[in-house]
Amino acid sequence: MGVSASVSASASGGWVSSRKPVTWSAIVVRQYFRNKGAVVGAAILVVVVLVAVLAPVIAPYDPYAMHPKEQLKPPSEQFLWGTDQYGRDMLSRVIHGARISLMVGFAANIFSVALGMLVGISAGYYGGRYDMLVMRVMDMIFAFPGLLLAMSIIGLIGQRGLIWVVIALSIVWIPMYARLIRGSVLSAKENTYVEAARVVGMRGGRIMWRHILPNTAAPVIVVASLCVGVAIRNAAALSFLGMGAQPPTPEWGLMLFETKQFLRINPWVTVSPGLAILLTVLAFNLVGDGLRSALDPRMKVD
Description:
CATH superfamily: MetI-like
Strand content: under 5%
Helix content: 55-70%
Shape: globular
């Protein structure tokens, strides 16, 4: 024991710790799970995702099937969340609506992140007149309220449907991601390793991809996690206004529109899709807040 202990001693007389160094990902995970709200949001989100993935299996009925003799039935053993004015099972429609809402939310953010990344990283890296021109265009788009701009885009296209909702929301959020990524690029491109890459003859595109782009990941992940919930809410609003999903699609906003006239006499037909929107958007907000805290480099780690 004495020999092994002496071998482990350092040259300076100290002792070498056998503990493994804590990685950045481990620190992020630990900080995230310290936030109780973020853990609750993640749990809700896991349930929503599982419901969306397993919708064809767990839904008790076909969401499109009508039961003429079962119109506006209250919750019962046969229809746990009641039926709508066409006798369709509300639980089945809400379950399938989770799949549609998540697809719209993620698709809109994926497209806007991809396009915003191209605009932001090129503007921040090359700078000059190109940067000024691009960012002025982004400021013009960003000046409009998001939902109003999405409605205007759909109106100009003259088409209605979820695909156009995704396109409209993607355009609306390009300036937000472009400005966010541009700010990260402006600070990252002044680092010494970027200068070293230029000295050795590395091309601009490769520098942006390998050295600058990874530094923009943390803020983009945080904003994107928050914007998925916003996209779901806005998609529901557009469907409620008749610009998004069209009947008989089981989309939460459309379900609210179709059943709003029965709110006073049969409130259960509006409570279920409204509650689904509330819980899903809340879950993404809690997760986004937890990621913001966990990925904040200024946070003290003990």
